[in-house]
Amino acid sequence: MDKGKLNYDGLFNLEQPLLKVPAEQLKKAARISQRYVEYVMKEITTEVNKLSKSANSCSPEQATKSLDDMVVRLQKLKRKLDDTKAEEALYVERTKVRLNHLKELMTITSAESPAYLQWCQTRLDRMLVDYMLRHGYTETAAKLAADKGIEALVDLQLFADSRLVEEALDNKNCTECLKWCNDNRSTLDKISSTLEFNLRLQEYIELARCGKKEEAIKYCRKYMIDWQDTHMKLIQQAMAMLAFGPDTQCEPYKELWDESRWDIIIEMFKSDNHALHNLTLQPLLTMTLQAGLAALKTPSCYSDENRTINCPVCAADTFGQLAQDLPCAHHVNSCIVDRLSGVIMDEHNPPMVLPNGYVYSSESLQALAAENHGMVRCERTGENYNIATARKAFIL
Ligand SMILES: [Zn+2]
C-alpha cells in the first residue's frame, strides 16, 4: 500500500453506528406518531358512525357537542404531531451533519495531510465522549462534546435515556425498562430478545420474595403465560421456586432467588439497546486501541525480563491488560529493541554484547560510558565492564 494512502473501507467499517443511531431514533419517532394517529382516527371513526346511526334520534345540541369533541381531539392530535415532527426534524438534521462528517473524509487523499489529522482528532473526541457515556460520566461527556462542538456527532440523548432505565433497574424497578420494551417491541422481536420475559419473571420473583405468593401466581397467569411456547421450562421453575423459598441451596431455584439476577438484567438491557442501534458491544475507543495493540504485541511483552519502555503492550497495568486476549502480531522480520532506550537497533545503532551475554544498543552503551569514565553497568545483572569489552552482536 502507498504510504499515506487512506483505507476508506476500513475507516467506514467502524462508522456504521454513527448513521444507524439517528436512523433508528427517526424510525421509532415515526412509529410512535403513526400509532397515535391510528388510535385517534379509530376513535373518531367510531364516533362518526355512532352519530350517523343516531341521526334521527339525537338532538342538534347533542350532535354539535359530539362534533366539537371530535374537533378538540383532532386539534390535540395536530399539536402532538407538530411535536413529533420537530423531533423527527432533529434526527434528520443529525443524520445530515454525520453524513457531512463522513463525506469530509472522502475529500482527504493523504493520511499525512493536516486535514486528516484534524478529522482524526474529531473522531478521537467522539470516541472519548462515547467511552465516557458508556461508563456513566454523562456530565463530563456532555461538557467535552459542547467544548468541541460535536454534539450532533455523539449520542448524548440516547445514553441519557438508557441511563434512566439502568438506574431504575439498579433500584429494582422494572417499569421504565418494560416501557422501553413496549416502545421497541418490533425491533426486539427481530433480534429474538428475551429481555421482556426476564423483566416479567423478575417482577414475579420480587412479589414472591415479599411473601405475596398468591399475587405472584396471578401475575404469572397474566403476564408470563404468553411466553409458554418458548419459556415453558423457566415458567415451571418459577412456579416450583415458591416451594423452596429464598434461602434454598437447591439449583436452579437458588439462582432464581439470587438478587444478582438484577445485574444480569441490566447487562441484558445494555446489550439489547446496543444491538438495536448497531452500537458495538465494546466502546469504539477500546476496539480501536486493541486494533493498534494487536499490531504491536509480541510474546516477550508479558515477560518481565523483556519488557520494553517504548512498547505500550509492555505496560502491564494499562495497555498490557487491554491486549491480554489479543493474538500476537505476525512479524516477518524480527526487530531488536534496546532495553535501555526503547529504540530499535539497526546498522546505524548496532546491538553490542557484553561479556555476560546481555545485549544493549551501541548508542546506549556509549552514553553510559561517557558518564562513567568508559565503564558501563549491565542493567540486568549490575556487573560493570569497560566499554572496550563489548563486542558487536551479529544476528543470524
Ligand atoms: Zn511489548
TrEMBL record:
Q: Which PROSITE patterns match?
A: CTLH, LISH, ZF_RING_GID
Annotated RING-Gid-type zinc fingers sit at 311-381
- All residue ranges annotated as the RING-Gid-type domain in the record: 311-381
What keywords appear on the UniProt entry? Coiled coil, Cytoplasm, Metal-binding, Zinc, Zinc-finger
Query: Would you identify the family this protein belongs to, as annotated?
Result: Belongs to the FYV10 family.
Q: Which PANTHER family match?
A: E3 UBIQUITIN-PROTEIN TRANSFERASE MAEA, MACROPHAGE ERYTHROBLAST ATTACHER-RELATED
| Protein name as catalogued | GID complex subunit containing RING finger motif
The gene that this protein is the product of is FYV10
